[in-house]
């Protein structure tokens, strides 16, 4: 989770269990529109950002990550929301811990939407039947991410699984957001994009935009919206998974391009500090909503920001 950073450094602030695992969460957001959208536009009332791992992994696979026995279905039930009522879904990328919950195990007596190899991290489990978790929702993801996921272009050999991806193909709404730097160029480590971030925001629904944040995957995206307090919230993917990753070189060992992650993290934090954005960190196990402020060391601090409510 900390790439090249020595364990003797990061373990001072991030505890591990007896198997060397750190605690993270699969943070997901349920957005409910509070204002009328423009007439005639695609205007989803309920939008889900991220879906977590879901319920399809076997016990052995779940034990590898010490996963709790709950999924996005449990959390939606806790806020009295039916999966069928979700009008749109946006995911930052399609790794198992972000997109696994887009499908669920078929229950006894249900006809599966898809039958095929069961996802797992050890050996083979054979086939099982799955259903679409959100049957009425288009799923917004970057075109590059969808292509890479289907081709399994990843440092990790098991993170893009057929039972997460194949069933949702007809529901994918691909997005092609502008890249922060010209394709083929290599920016300096502290270089900022020359094209305005306003030109790189792609609307997917009234008031909701996505923004390409490459490095962890080539097609990873952040999701931006305004909350009822008029704060700009940016759901921040694995370019900055937890507050403990707030460092220039704190890239993940399984990023497809750690250098690109470092560059992206710098310009994203710079934009957030200058624009007053709040970042919702996708794997932060403590307080996930953070303000970004510049410090005297030439980097950024992440003070906690009150959660909605």
Describe the structure.
This protein is an alpha/beta fold and 309 residues long. It has a single domain, classed as Metallo-beta-lactamase, Chain A. 17% of the residues lie in helices and 20% in strands. It has helices at 7-10, 59-64, 72-78, 96-99, 143-151, 162-165, 258-275; strands at 29-32, 46-49, 88-90, 103-105, 114-117, 127-132, 139-142, 172-175, 202-205, 208-212, 221-226, 232-236, 278-281, 289-291, 293-294, 300-301. The strands form four sheets. Strands 9-10-11-12-13-14 form a six-stranded mixed β-sheet, with no helix packed on it. A five-stranded mixed β-sheet has the order 1-2-3-7-8. A hairpin with a 5-residue loop joins β11 and β12 (232-236). The mean pLDDT is 95.
Number of distinct beta strands: 16
What number of structural domains do the residues give? 1
Pick out the low-confidence regions: none
| Arithmetic mean pLDDT | 95
CATH class: Alpha Beta
Number of helices: 7
Please give the share of residues in helix. Answer: 10-25%
Determine Rg (CA atoms, Å): 19 Å
| Overall shape | globular
Descriptive terms for the model:
309 residues; 16 strands; alpha/beta; 17% helix; 7 helices; globular; Metallo-beta-lactamase, Chain A; five-stranded mixed β-sheet; six-stranded mixed β-sheet
Topology:
Elements: H1 7-10, E1 29-32, E2 46-49, H2 59-64, H3 72-78, E3 88-90, H4 96-99, E4 103-105, E5 114-117, E6 127-132, E7 139-142, H5 143-151, H6 162-165, E8 172-175, E9 202-205, E10 208-212, E11 221-226, E12 232-236, H7 258-275, E13 278-281, E14 289-291, E15 293-294, E16 300-301
Parallel strand pairs: 2-3, 3-7, 7-8, 12-13
Antiparallel strand pairs: 1-2, 4-6, 5-6, 9-10, 10-11, 11-12, 13-14, 15-16
